[in-house]
Write a structure and sequence with these properties.
The chain is of the alpha/beta class. It has two domains: about 300 residues, TIM Barrel, CATH 3.20.20.150; about 60 residues, no CATH class. About 45% of the residues lie in helices and about 10% in strands. The chain contains 15 helices and ten strands. The protein is globular. The protein starts with 13 loop residues before the first strand and ends with a helix. The relative contact order is 0.10. The site of D-gluconic acid has 9 residues, from β4. The site of one manganese (II) ion has 6 residues, from α8.
Length: about 400
């Protein structure tokens, strides 16, 4: 499956979480259907399919109850696998959602002792990431939210979240780490409502922090789609703000549970616009897959899933290049006046007088009669994706 033009290259920067290919298929209605995978085997398999790196939660690699010497043994084995395959660990994260202590929240729990516990765990995970050479630390607040809304005033919870992230950036600076933090928005699941539900909420929150330059976002396809939003719009705004530190790729249909499907398996057009955006924007970060194989799959299906994520990305990357080169599409973009969006609105010296004088020369009804050819443009994109151009 990975032959020909869709063979991944290291510069494609494809990465997978240990918890993605290693997902045992548990869901709210059913138990595990696959055996746990050894992180070392995952590293070797990922290298075989052409991935650039692997990512992890602290406890994907080091169980919470491991002693210091057990931690060293696990890390040594894992490092040996990285060294022999050349795989990198560009991102690590912290599990602040599985254990019972986090049921009411972690960094925004009402109980200060739970918050202290969560913050200490996050600082330990930042150390682990630095030890493994990761430059991005993802923070996903899965439990930071509510069902019973009376139980958590949002503004105070945001104060506590900001306090925790400020403590993390202070720690990063004290230790001279090169780590940057990427906040991962999600609207719901597992909580009824989660704080920082969308990319937009996260971008606004970041500006209130002590070291906003160290904090960006890790948008996820499924999460923005769950909110009914266009994923590539959110990613475009994150890029525009200089805040796209990392990205989680998967697939999701609007209005469904958190599906975490193989990249490109749903919403193909949206996936195309996303890949086109990443590939034309100069984004140099990871293409990270945070998805799960279907629960129907056994051990081989897991790798069909992983190869499928990469292959679909590369196919869409090729489509993006064709989009750029297609002369009919270029002409349709001109009809849609896309190139003119780059022209500043300002007239003359930028004064209101210059603007008003200019507007007097315009013919409103002529402007109102303009057509933009969007049907033709969108049909061309549709045909490109359907493989007939
Ligand atoms: C989810 C999230 C997680 C996070 C991961 C990193 O919906 O479960 O996407 O997979 O990305 O925990 O913190
Ligand atoms: Mn998710
Ligand atoms: Mn994610």
């Amino acid at each position: 499956m990975t032959s020909g033009p869709y063979e991944p290259q290291p510069e494609d920067r494809f990465t997978f979480g240990l918890w993605t290919v290693g997902n045992p298929g548990r869901d709210p209605f059913g138990v595990e259907v696959r055996e746990p995978l050894d992180p070392v085997d995952i590293v070797h398999h990922l290298a075989d399919i052409g991935a650039y790196g692997v990512t992890l939660h602290d406890n994907d690699l080091v169980p919470a109850d491991a002693s210091a010497s057990e931690r060293e043994v696990l890390l040594k084995r894992f490092r040996a696998a990285l060294d022999s395959t050349g795989l990198k660990v560009p991102m690590t994260t912290v599990n602040l959602f599985t254990r019972p202590i986090f049921k009411e929240g972690a960094l925004t729990a009402n109980d200060p002792d739970v918050r202290r516990f969560a913050l200490a765990k996050a600082l330990d995970a930042i150390d682990l990431g630095a030890e493994l050479g990761a430059s991005i630390f993802v923070l996903w607040g899965g439990r930071e939210g509510t069902e019973a809304h009376a139980a958590k005033p949002v503004a105070e919870a945001l104060d506590r979240l900001a306090e925790a992230i400020n403590a993390m950036t202070t720690y990063i600076a004290e230790r001279n780490y090169s780590t940057r933090i990427a906040l991962e928005p999600k609207p719901n699941e597992p909580r009824g409502d989660i704080l920082l539900p969308t990319v937009g909420h996260a971008l606004a929150f970041i500006e209130s922090l002590d070291s906003p330059e160290l904090v960006g976002v890790n948008p996820e396809f499924a999460h923005e789609t769950m909110s009914g939003l266009s994923f590539h719009h959110g990613v475009a705004q994150a890029l525009w703000a200089g805040k796209l530190f990392h990205i989680d790729l998967n697939a999701q249909r609007i209005g469904r549970f958190d599906q975490d499907f193989r990249f490109g398996s749903e919403e193909v057009k949206e996936a195309f616009y996303l890949v086109h955006l990443l590939e034309t924007s100069g984004y140099s970060g990871m293409r990270h897959f945070d998805a799960h194989p279907y629960r129907t799959e056994g051990p081989e299906g897991v790798w069909d899933f992983a190869r499928g994520c990469i292959r679909t990305y590369l196919i869409l990357k090729e489509k993006a290049a064709r989009f750029e080169a297609d002369s009919e599409i270029k002409a349709a973009l001109a009809v849609a006046r896309v190139p003119d969006l780059a022209t500043p609105t300002k007239v003359g010296d930028g004064s209101a007088e210059a603007l008003r004088g200019y507007v007097k020369t315009l013919d409103e009804s002529a402007l109102g009669r303009a057509h933009y050819g969007h049907e033709q443009l969108d049909q061309l994109v549709t045909e490109l994706l359907l493989g007939v151009r």
